[in-house]
Amino acid sequence: MKIDKSLMAGSTGMLILQLLEEKEMYGYEMIDTLEKRSDSTFSLKAGTLYPLLHSLEKAGYVSSREAESENGRMRKYYAITDEGAGFLAEKRNEWNVFSGAVNKVLEGGSCV
After folding, report:
1. What is the pLDDT of residue 1?
2. Of 25, 35, 97, 107, which cross-links 29 as Cys (Cβ 3.0–4.6 Å)?
3. 27 and 50 in contact (C-beta within 8 Å)?
4. Rounded distance between C-alpha atoms, residue 33 and residue 27, angstroms
5. Does residue 29 contact residue 14 with C-beta atoms inside 8 Å?
6. Where are the domains of the chain?
């Protein structure tokens, strides 16, 4: 099923930070991991991911370094910072409250 891009827009940064909380990654590794874990619901293009990574880096939520990969190619690896981990925790909490409220409405939750 195709998902409205406006629903995904606000959560993409949180999802990228989640991946980076688990381990340092390079861009295409993030794209591939996110696509596999989401059963292709999140299928980012490089033109979407890299501006997002740059904004997360500018905000101090991720850091980057260049290093040689196993195949000898230079890659830029990204890692979450302490500030990014705190921001991710806030976003997770916000998401839980929001998605819980949406589910209550969709499921016909009780009114007080």
Report:
1. 64
2. 25
3. yes
4. 10
5. no
6. 5-93
- Within 10 A of 12 (CB to CB), how many other CB atoms are there? 16
Q: Coil, helix or strand for 41?
A: coil
Contact 61, 17 (CB under 8 A): yes
Q: Compute the distance between CA of residue 62 and CA of residue 23 in angstroms, rounded to an integer.
A: 12
pLDDT of amino acid 111: 63
**Would you state the pLDDT for residue 70?**
83
Q: What pLDDT does residue 10 have? A: 74
pTM of the model: 0.86
65 DSSP β-pair partners:
77
Q: Both tokens of residue 24?
A: 């340092």
Exposure string of 50-78, with b = 16+ CB inside 10 Å and e = fewer, is: eebbeebeeeebbbeeeeeeeeeeebebb
7 CB-near residues (< 8 Å, 6+ apart): none
**Average pLDDT for consecutive 10-residue bins of the chain (112 residues)?**
70 95 96 95 91 96 93 94 97 93 87 60
